[in-house]
């Protein structure tokens, strides 16, 4: 009986039902029922196996950590003479990707809606006041605080991704890392600086009130060096923002400066960077990360091109490079 059924099935699969062995009517009808039952059963098993295979594929996606959810609070520094030519374009594009953002300026503006810090002329003193203000009134709105210029372009998702292996409780900050003449690490002012919430609170509560460890005096063109010194005095570490390949994620110059040859030592900004880069560079070339976080705009209206190309354009015929794939490939 069982032998027969198996025999039947093997024929059924090859689509030659009529080759079922002849039998007595009663036995035959029984065998036919079993045959068809087993046939259905085996189809079911087949479907189950297929389903399991599919599930297994999916579960690889499902067991991956969820996308990073750290809240990024963006503090975007601008000035009255840049509101219409620069800040509005940033306001209309990437600033929306921050969990919260606040422009800081020396004057009010209807669209940019900055917090106003009037009558402070020195950049360092502005920064101190602005960071203190954010600590006082917005501290609970972010896990990480990005202090950045109005003409930078930021891929906030990539920042969140870089930070997913760190805790906002760590005393750490990131950016484009340089080394001063006194061997003090600090972040370049032409790119963003991101402070953990612990670092921000240490800066405001411990560094700022103490003149020995953090100067209240004007710093001219070197406010970021002083920030580096203050932070190191309260044990905040300058983090490494490069990716797993050692490629750079915070770029202080326009994209074309990197893509057309190498940086140019006879340009003052490039020289400054090349002289002080914390990490060694070969032939003035900066390897650019595919997990790029920050770059600088040369011509502000181009920011709409960046924004569209980053978030809207679908490239057909290439596998989607999702954050999930990246996390699978490089679980830091
Ligand atoms: C300021 O910092 C210095 C160096 O850490 C320390 O010796 C001094 O006691 C601090 N001053 C105050 C008022 O906390
Ligand atoms: C570097 O900059 C200088 C000054 O602007 C310029 O004369 C020179 O052609 C540049 N070199 C390269 C290789 O772009």
Automatic annotation (TrEMBL):
<keyword id="KW-0328">Glycosyltransferase</keyword>
<keyword id="KW-0808">Transferase</keyword>
<dbReference type="GO" id="GO:0016263">
    <property type="term" value="F:glycoprotein-N-acetylgalactosamine 3-beta-galactosyltransferase activity"/>
</dbReference>
<comment type="pathway">
    <text>Protein modification; protein glycosylation.</text>
</comment>
<keyword id="KW-0472">Membrane</keyword>
<keyword id="KW-0547">Nucleotide-binding</keyword>
<dbReference type="InterPro" id="IPR003378">
    <property type="entry name" value="Fringe-like_glycosylTrfase"/>
</dbReference>
<dbReference type="InterPro" id="IPR026050">
    <property type="entry name" value="C1GALT1/C1GALT1_chp1"/>
</dbReference>
<dbReference type="Pfam" id="PF02434">
    <property type="entry name" value="Fringe"/>
</dbReference>
<keyword id="KW-0812">Transmembrane</keyword>
<feature type="domain" description="Fringe-like glycosyltransferase">
    <location>
        <begin position="73"/>
        <end position="183"/>
    </location>
</feature>
<feature type="transmembrane region" description="Helical">
    <location>
        <begin position="32"/>
        <end position="55"/>
    </location>
</feature>
<keyword id="KW-1133">Transmembrane helix</keyword>
<dbReference type="GO" id="GO:0016020">
    <property type="term" value="C:membrane"/>
</dbReference>
<protein>
    <recommendedName>
        <fullName>N-acetylgalactosaminide beta-1,3-galactosyltransferase</fullName>
        <ecNumber>2.4.1.122</ecNumber>
    </recommendedName>
</protein>
<keyword id="KW-0735">Signal-anchor</keyword>
<comment type="similarity">
    <text>Belongs to the glycosyltransferase 31 family. Beta3-Gal-T subfamily.</text>
</comment>
<dbReference type="GO" id="GO:0000166">
    <property type="term" value="F:nucleotide binding"/>
</dbReference>
């Amino acid at each position: 009986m069982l032998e027969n059924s198996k025999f039947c099935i093997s024929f059924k699969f090859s689509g030659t039902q009529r080759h079922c062995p002849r039998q007595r009517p009663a036995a035959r009808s029984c065998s036919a029922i079993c045959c068809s039952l087993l046939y259905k059963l085996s189809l079911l098993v087949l479907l189950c196996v297929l389903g399991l295979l599919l599930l297994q594929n999916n579960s690889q996606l499902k067991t991956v950590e969820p996308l990073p959810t750290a809240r990024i609070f963006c503090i975007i520094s601008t000035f009255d003479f840049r509101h219409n030519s620069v800040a509005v374009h940033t306001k209309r594009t990437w600033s929306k990707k921050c969990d919260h953002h606040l422009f800081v300026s020396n004057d009010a503006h209807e669209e940019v809606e900055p917090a106003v810090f009037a009558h402070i002329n020195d950049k360092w003193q502005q920064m101190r006041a602005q960071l203190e203000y954010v600590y006082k009134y917005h501290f609970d709105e972010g896990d990480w605080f990005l202090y950045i210029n109005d003409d930078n372009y930021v891929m906030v998702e990539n920042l969140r991704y870089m930070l997913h292996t760190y805790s906002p409780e760590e005393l750490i900050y990131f950016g484009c890392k340089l080394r001063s003449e006194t061997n003090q690490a600090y972040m370049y002012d032409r790119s963003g600086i991101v402070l953990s919430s612990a670092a921000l609170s240490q800066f405001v509560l411990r560094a700022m009130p103490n003149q020995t460890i953090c100067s209240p005096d004007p710093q001219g063109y070197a406010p970021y060096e002083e920030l580096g010194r203050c932070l190191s005095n309260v044990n905040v570490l300058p983090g490494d923002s490069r990716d797993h390949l050692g490629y750079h994620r915070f770029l202080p110059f326009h994209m074309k400066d990197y893509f057309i040859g190498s940086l140019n030592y006879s340009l003052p900004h490039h020289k400054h960077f090349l002289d002080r880069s914390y990490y060694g560079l070969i032939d003035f070339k900066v390897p650019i990360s595919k997990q790029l976080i920050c770059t600088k705009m040369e011509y502000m209206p181009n920011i709409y091109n960046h924004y569209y190309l980053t978030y809207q354009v679908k490239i057909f015929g290439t596998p989607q490079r999702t954050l999930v794939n990246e996390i699978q490939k490089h679980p830091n």
